[in-house]
Amino acid sequence: MGTPARRPTLLGRGSWPEAARIAEVLRAETVGGLLLVGAAAVALIWANSPWGDAYRALTELRVGPAALHLDLTLAQWAADGLLAIFFFVAGLELKREFVAGDLRDPRRAALPVAAAVGGMVVPALIYIAFTAGAGDGATAGWAIPTATDIAFALAVLAVISTHLPAALRTFLLTLAVVDDLLAIAIIAIFYTDSLAVVPLLLAFVPLALFTLLVQRRVRSWWLLLPLAALSWVLVHESGVHATVAGVLLGFAVPVIRRAEGPGRGLAEHFEHRFRPISAGFAVPVFAFFAAGVSIAGSGGLGASLGDAVTLGVIVGLVAGKAVGVLGSTWLVQRFTRARLAEGLSWWDVLGLSLLAGIGFTVSLLIGELAFGGGSERDDHVKIGVLVGSLVSALLATVVLRLRNRHYRRLCAEETVDADQDGIPDVYQRDDETGP
């Protein structure tokens, strides 16, 4: 008789090299998340202070060459330019996960992909249900509550000091990365009002040259940066949101090293260089220019919370994300007959699902694209995103803190290295027994 097949495991630890790399990524994102929260708080306080007009004047200040149609406001430069860096890093991360990370295994990739899809579909349906009868194009913002802000979520984890196990942090990161890819696809397809074909076709020329150089492992910034900038300018000129250029450039970078030996591959090299810029500067600056909504200017908090758009965003983020991520995870478990990894329960999945309801960066961006920056509806979107993210954070805090004693024990097990070879024993045991 043969050995019975092992049941697949959900939310397992994965490999030690991947766990170590993701731990480094999460440290950078956590610091960036704290800066993001601080920048958003400063903007919100300033916009509602007696000096609110100065804040609005700053966001509407135009700079840039008009001849190239780049005389943009500072808020537009943050949304179109700085977020291109954010999506470039997201493209690098996503490609690396599926080419060289644990997600190259379809069995491991199925869960975060399914969770990301479920976490986008359910919030979108909830938003549409709330706004279907509101008229005035309210349903145009259906994609607003579909995004997860990994930096904000990790900042919440840092503040509440929960000892979340490595497998759950990895799942949250990969879920958010896939979420970012789906969000940029939605922006490119559904939020492009007019398309100029010639600039779009021309954009592929510098993009192709950039791809050729990086495939040859060229790292010279004075060659690559002008090509990346020209790609961004032409995509912006085409009418497609310029952040799409960031993702395409990220996908062009090779992940695998050509020769064995020490040192980083090119994708990891670029990620190491640009992630601090993205997390520490680009995203916080965008948050500063995007989050400063004037409560009085949007008709007061009561009027905003009574608007169908605001309610759709709040319920979509809080309930939609929780139901979508938790439900998709359960369906994967149901149809694959998998079991949760040892030591984890469905309460842990619920806590992560609530944490995924913290939508900020991409949600605010889609709100601007759907209703126009500075419009009353856009102000209502900002209030909805802020309130929904805050409620999701509070609910996730309650669930995760209740489980924190258990997490502390799991984390202690993950740090034991009896043979002092630099690899925790649990990862060596996992390698021996299989997933």
From TrEMBL:
Substrates-to-products reaction catalysed:
Na(+)(in) + 2 H(+)(out) = Na(+)(out) + 2 H(+)(in)
Q: Which organism is it from?
A: Pseudonocardia humida
What Gene3D superfamilies does the entry give? Answer: Na+/H+ antiporter like domain (1.20.1530.10)
What does UniProt list as this organism's lineage? Bacteria, Bacillati, Actinomycetota, Actinomycetes, Pseudonocardiales
Q: Which family does it belong to?
A: Belongs to the NhaA Na(+)/H(+) (TC 2.A.33) antiporter family.
Q: Which UniProt keywords apply?
A: Antiport, Cell membrane, Ion transport, Membrane, Sodium, Sodium transport, Transmembrane, Transmembrane helix, Transport
Q: What is its main location?
A: membrane
Name-wise, this protein is Na(+)/H(+) antiporter NhaA
Domain of life, source organism: Bacteria
Its job: Na(+)/H(+) antiporter that extrudes sodium in exchange for external protons.
Database matches in InterPro entries:
Na/H_antiporter_dom_sf, NhaA
Topology in membrane: Multi-pass membrane protein
Q: Name one Pfam family in it.
A: Na_H_antiport_1
